[in-house]
Amino acid sequence: AGKGGQDGEGRGPMGMMAEKLGLSEDQKASLKAMHEKQGESWKALGEEMRGNVKALKEAVDKGAKDAELSKLITALEASKTKMRAQEDKSVQEMKKILPVPQQAKAALAFARRANQQKQGGWKPGGPRGGKPGMKHEGKRGDHDEGEDEGDDKGK
């Protein structure tokens, strides 16, 4: 879908952020350029993370020795560190584009999203059209689809 459609400016993460923050057209263009510039880095980091998670899972499943598991854990932790550094870089770039009141609104939106992720309510790739059946690191991938629907976690 094009502009105005499901993947258009009014929908998805960028559209929702633009609406919540009241972004100008210049800000939208600057953030889009930043996102495109960093896209390859994020893609490579995501592939690295998925590869490390897969390797660790396979090693655990086959009963690998402690030394191999330790090496794989270290690689996974290094990937997480790289992702945090990329996220920090993105935030710093965004701060150059947004005035402080919009930075505050963005910080609150990101904090809400992170909290939802921890509680299993936000799914990476959701509005952006994540691949069906795509597994994600964490407890959501440890059970069958739909198993958590209707559960009483908060009661």
Write a structural description.
This protein has 155 residues and is mainly alpha-helical. It contains 4 helices and no strands. The protein has helices spanning 12-21, 25-61, 66-97, 100-119. Helix 2 (25-61) packs antiparallel against helix 3. The longest helix has 37 residues, at 25-61. The termini are far apart. The model is unreliable at 1-10 and 126-155 (pLDDT under 50).
Main attributes?
4 helices, 155 residues, disordered C terminus, elongated, disordered N terminus, mainly alpha, 64% helix
Quick structural summary:
The protein is mainly alpha-helical. It has 4 helices and no strands.
Annotate the secondary structure layout:
Elements lengths: L11 H10 L3 H37 L4 H32 L2 H20 L36
Sum up the overall morphology in one term. elongated
Low-confidence spans: pLDDT under 50, at least 5 residues? 1-10, 126-155
- Look at the structure and give the mean pLDDT: 77
Helix content: 55-70%
Rg, Å, rounded: 18 Å
Outline the biggest β-sheet: none
Main structural class: mainly alpha
Helix count from the secondary structure assignment: 4
Strand portion, in percent?
under 5%
Q: How many E-type strands?
A: 0
Q: Give the end-to-end Cα distance, rounded to a whole number of Å.
A: 40 Å
Along the chain, the helix and strand elements come as HHHH
